[in-house]
């Protein structure tokens, strides 16, 4: 069953295999026949991919809610994973309050469990970060996104997902209130997904801030001002961002000074 699960996950994870509702048909006509024999977390990995393959978000929501109702014997970890899929769909439907309530309820359960699989934390922090991405504030998104990266094998994400995540976390780090430790973002492999892309300037800006390099900071903004000043997240915090680089420049100067 383990080998079959891996084969199914690899097949479903390849988006080129998807045709209309063929993933759901595969689940309904094949996977559901032996789902109780699968490892619970491998099972929820499979049904998660299937559930997010629907074009209609309401269909996805009904699918996940039906799974939760019909799988009451699943482990708490597996149930939380499915609930996090519901959160993602609720956010797509614009039901932010419902999503927040579900996150809070499941968060209370999650942090009382022992020996939790990294998959559960990955799905929880993914959902939490998506929630903060919609409602803010940027520093809370930044915190949740870093936790998501901690518990996730980034290499398994698609190039598009890596690029989007790198863009979002860079914007949050730059604009987020009270964020001065850019080393946390730089230390993650995700930031390199910006290289050789239209948003490579964000990579340069992060490094300029981290180094307190006012000249490079100003040059980077000047070279990319049409994009920079069209970003609501950056424009709304422009004065605070300038204060950040000045403060970090002063801190770096202080550290570089000789004790004498």
The major β-sheet equals:
none
Note the run of SSEs as H and E: HHHHHHHHHHHHHHH
Mean pLDDT value = 95
Structural class: mainly alpha
Radius of gyration: 21 Å
The number of helical runs is 15
Q: Ranges with pLDDT <50 over ≥5 residues?
A: none
Strand content: under 5%
For the terminal residues, how far apart are their CA atoms?
68 Å
Q: Helical proportion?
A: 55-70%
Number of strands: 0
Shape: elongated
Keywords: Proteasome
Domain PSD13 N-terminal: 1-206
Pfam families: PSD13_N (PF22037)
GO biological process, one term: ubiquitin-dependent protein catabolic process
Question: Secondary structure elements and their pairing?
Answer:
Elements lengths: L1 H12 L8 H8 L10 H12 L5 H14 L5 H17 L3 H15 L7 H18 L2 H13 L8 H17 L7 H4 L13 H12 L2 H10 L1 H4 L3 H4 L2 H19 L4
GO biological process, one term: ubiquitin-dependent protein catabolic process
GO molecular function: structural molecule activity
Keywords: Proteasome
């Amino acid at each position: 069953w383990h080998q079959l699960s891996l084969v199914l996950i690899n097949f479903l994870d390849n988006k080129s295999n998807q045709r209309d509702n063929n993933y759901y048909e595969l689940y309904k006509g094949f996977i559901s026949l032996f789902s109780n024999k699968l490892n619970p977390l491998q099972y929820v990995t499979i049904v998660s991919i299937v559930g997010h393959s629907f074009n209609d978000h309401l269909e996805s929501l009904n699918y996940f809610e039906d799974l939760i109702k019909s799988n009451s014997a699943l482990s708490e970890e597996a149930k939380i994973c499915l609930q996090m899929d519901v959160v993602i769909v609720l956010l797509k439907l614009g039901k932010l309050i419902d999503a927040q309530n579900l996150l809070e309820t499941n968060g209370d359960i999650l942090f009382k469990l022992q020996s939790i699989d990294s998959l559960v934390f990955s799905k929880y922090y993914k959902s939490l970060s998506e929630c903060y991405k919609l409602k803010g504030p940027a520093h809370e998104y930044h915190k949740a996104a870093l936790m998501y990266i901690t518990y996730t094998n980034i290499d398994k994400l698609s190039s598009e997902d890596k690029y989007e995540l790198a863009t979002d976390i860079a914007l949050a780090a730059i604009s987020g209130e009270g964020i001065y430790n850019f080393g946390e973002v730089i230390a993650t492999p995700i930031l390199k997904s910006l290289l050789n892309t239209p948003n490579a300037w964000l990579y340069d800006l992060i490094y300029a801030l981290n180094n307190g390099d006012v000249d490079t900071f100003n040059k980077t903004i000047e070279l990319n001002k049409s994009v920079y000043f069209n970003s609501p997240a950056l424009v709304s915090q422009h004065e605070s961002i300038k204060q950040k680089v000045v403060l970090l420049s002063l801190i770096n100067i202080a550290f570089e000074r000789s004790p004498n």
